[in-house]
Amino acid sequence: MYFSDETIESVRSASDILDVVGEYVRLKRKGSNFFGLCPFHQEKTPSFSVNPELSIYKCFGCGEHGDVFSFVMRLEGMEFPEAVRMLAERAGLELPEEGEGERAQAGHREAMLHALRFAARFYHHILTRTPQGRPALEYLRRRGFTDQVVTKFGLGFAPDTWDALIRAASKHHMASDVLEETGLAIRRRDDSGSYDRFRGRVMFPILSHVGKVVGFGGRVLSSESDQPKYINSPETPVYNKSRVLYGLFQAKNSIREREEALVVEGYTDVIALHQAGIANCVASSGTSLTREQVQLLGRYAKRVVLVFDADTAGAGAAARGIQVVLSEGLTAYVVSLPPGEDPDSFSRRGGAELEKYLDEHRRDVLAYLYEQAEREGRLETPEGEAEVMHEIVETVASMPDPLMQESYIRRAAEVLRVPDIRLHMVLEDVLKSRRRRTAPATAPAPFKTRPESAQGPRPPVSRKLNTGRILPEERTLLRLMYQHGSSLIEFILGNTSLDEFTAGPARQAASAFLQQYEAGSVDRSTFLNGDYGDDVRRLMADVAMMQYEPSQNWERKQNIPVPRLDDDPYEAAISAMTLLKLDRVNDAIEKQRQEIFEAERAGDEIQPLQTQMMALNELRRRIERREFLEDE
Ligand SMILES: [Zn+2]
């Protein structure tokens, strides 16, 4: 270790943990802490908290915790010294000069990043300060690039010689094998040394989202050249193409503000849009959009707008992009540019016009897929139409959030002009065949219940309380009562009270079953013909028509074995009741935890609240042991 404690402490105190974490996680203030979605595990409700006073973070879901250094190390896969250097740079601190020997120790990654940063400065200098760069600078100006964006994106020029970079680097004691490893230089076949990869090209440095140069794209000046128009850095230990988005470093503040990112195709598109005042814009540069790239965007954006040139809009590329965005839980839109235009050409007509076009022509994914199918003439036969419907439902099925699926199914029913019950049936089929394909190992980590500690309250985690949303286990209970009549109504409603069902149609339906049971005859047609109102009819139609199977998540979530509905309806009912009761008691415990926390902060008496908490915990243990069943 070659940083003194003093150095480390000064970097720590210059690095505001809220700022640093805020670059990766959207944080919201709650009391004296800040909460957001944990970057270390998959979750839908925030349990990741940052305490700015103590300068620490902790996740109540997965237990990950630490300070600003460990945060950066974990998320960026950095070693400690690299994290210290990055944070120092970020805070504008000068670290004590490192000698040659120390640099040699600093590790491979560090040396490679150093070489890449050196190369970016070298190319930029050539472009902006030397006669060699003049033609390239003129070329950029002709294409409408201002000096400002040339600086902002660090554009450069690689001289048209075999070893300009290698020679400059060797003057700064950089070994050529490091240049080779970064892809900046290429080893000669006869092993007699190496030569520059990029020659006579405008250079676009590719930055990681924290602003490190990790690679380059190089473009020829003249389109008549027999060279390929673009060449790019190869993948290296510091440049994983599927994890980097071109322009994200420059765009992230704007993306965070608008909660929306535009994804375009090329480097020049990104720069042109920035110049037109549309700064929330990135490119996947070369690869089609990957999961990792979308996850990265998800740290800053909720919505992703995929912008395609009309001619390359290869429905394929758009459709793949959409799938990836949706499966990461973000909302996707698609914009096709008019024929013959790309963002670069379009933006020269002015930012306002482009922005207007993007607003007016954005399609949600379902409308886009439908219109695309229409353009391709696929809706003209019944078979074609069925196929399109299936594709659209496949798209909906790739969304991780059932609530989101639900609202997209409704929207799809509108677009396709078919009853949503039909789509629900298709969706169930698709989901079922996916469940069969998905190995449990890829499932999200199981929900762990935390033991209550004796050391008093911890800051409450704002787990979303179940309000108004009908739970899957309630659907199962309704389905069992619907299917099996009196016997299961007696069993379920003998062990569950009506107010455990979610207020609204679920509780109304349960109450109707109870009435019919007590009146001595159960008639299921009454649920579907509207006797209990439209909401109950719709719910029960769903429940009855879907081949409803309990979610496999139950098993993972609570370690409750889940028998299939048709194997043993009583076992299925016990599982569903156990879950419903656990969900209810967990909500109550969550509320109680919040109350204790607030009482303690206000200096109020907390003893009675803690007694209630113990009772709730005892209740939970009894439910887990299934002691709510009357005859057991
Ligand atoms: Zn976590």
Report what the structure shows.
The protein has 632 residues and is an alpha+beta fold. The chain has five domains: 96 residues, DNA Primase, Chain A; 133 residues, DNA primase, catalytic core, N-terminal domain (DNA primase DNAg catalytic core, N-terminal domain, Alpha-Beta Complex); 119 residues, Dna Topoisomerase Vi A Subunit, Chain: A, domain 2 (3-Layer(aba) Sandwich), CATH 3.40.1360.10; 67 residues, no CATH class; 153 residues, no CATH class. The protein contains 28 helices and 16 strands. A hairpin with a 5-residue loop joins strand 9 and strand 10. Helix 21 packs antiparallel against helix 22 and helix 22 crosses helix 23. The protein is globular. About 7% of the residues have low confidence. The site of zinc ion has 8 residues, from loops.
Essential attributes:
632 residues, DNA primase DNAg catalytic core, N-terminal domain, Dna Topoisomerase Vi A Subunit, Chain: A, domain 2, 5-stranded antiparallel beta sheet, 16 strands, 10% strand, globular, binds zinc ion
The main β sheet shows up as: 5 strands, antiparallel
Number of strands: 16
Structural class: alpha+beta
Which range does the strand content fall in?
5-15%
Radius of gyration: 30 Å
Total domain units: 5
Distance between the termini: 63 Å
Give the overall silhouette: globular
